[in-house]
Amino acid sequence: MPFVFFETFGCQMNVADSDMLAQALFSLGYSIIEESEHADLIVVNTCSVREHAEVRALARIHELCVRKKKHALAQEIWVIGCMAQRMGNSIIEKNPGVNQVIGAKDIVSFVQDLVHGPQGKTALPAPDVKPGRISALLPIMRGCNNFCSYCIVPSVRGGETSIPCSRIVEDILRRIDKGTREVTLLGQNVNSYHDGDTDFSDLLAKIHELPGLLRIRFTTSHPRDCTDKLIQTMARLPKICKHVHLPVQSGSTRILEAMNRGYNRETYLQRVNAIRHAMPDVDITTDAMVGFPTETDRDFQDTLSLFAQARFTTAFMFAYSQREQTRAADMGDDVPVEVKKARLATLIDLQMSVTKERYAAMIGRNIEVLFVEQKRGSEATWMGQDIGCKRTLLACNENIAGTILPVRVIRSSGMTLTLERT
Predict the structure, then answer these.
(1) Where do the domains of the chain lie, and which CATH numbers do they carry?
(2) Three-state helix/strand/coil letters over 78-143
(3) Average pLDDT of the chain to the nearest whole number
């Protein structure tokens, strides 16, 4: 039996793509292992969104190739994903130990050919490798049409294509039969999903009716497409988790225009207010960058003030890095590295204080948590998530995988809630 090892960088879409390829290999007789040195095949799934992600992936690929050559290992190394799309076979030129490069645009057809052959492109295998996986990631669309000036995704993943609603429902039903109780619907801009007359809100309503499914999540939402219909659908249907990941990127209207985001500071905050009005206990999370070309101290202060006003539960925060094949690359990179670092540290400090406050406010509250898996190294501790996005821990000797239990919050670490049974 051949063994395959996966190393995945980047977003949840990359994780889902790795799962899809893993299922294809699984159906062909491969076994998934967690040690790269014993693998017959190594798959490195790469990210191009930020320079740091590429640097890490290239370093890992180089390390694997050096070890392969040094020990004369009969391993195949495949490089897939967004960086593979952007760099192509230059990866092999720089790392001769790499056997195959598969770009993000080609991964679906590659898997279809792998499983069915070039003439048998009927349907993809369900990307869930392990029966009993409680929470599963499910792409419902691919690509992006937004062309934000800093973003390389349209270049490496192509334009938006939505997966037919019927196929999504069939895939979820297969997963439910295997033990899945929660799905996270994925797309670069998930709320622009359309299949004929079925929009994203309609899709959520259809999935909500599936028996055996306990919770529905989705990411990532574009503020411009976060409609009142979507907000009301979330508020109305109890299986839909009360969590909206709504990337803002900047609190400055001037910078948002330069980013080509399609909204301004005021309209973004209006969306936040509409979400909170419909769902007072909702978790809103975001992405933000500092140091975008021409960003001034005043622009950065606008970002700080928006964070203080929006009071996100958590946020992904990072410094701008120039990416080839984007319009922002022509703007120069005029904010000094030291300034970027200082602004990022200030923003992180602000958000961490808000996150700790929001988690601390949960102490003493009774909530319902879906438990997904045991904490690694501690079989008596179960990890789960509330109806929002908060991570939780519960000491329990029973097998509670895939169940929703009423619990009380007794402690907060600032990023995790500790629970007791009620």
Answers:
(1) 3-116 (3.40.50.12160), 131-241 (3.30.750.210), 275-361 (3.30.750.200), 366-421 (2.40.50)
(2) EEEEHHHHHHCCHHHHHCCCCCEEEEHHHHHHHHHHHHHCCCCCCCCCCCCCCCCCCEEEEECEEC
(3) 94
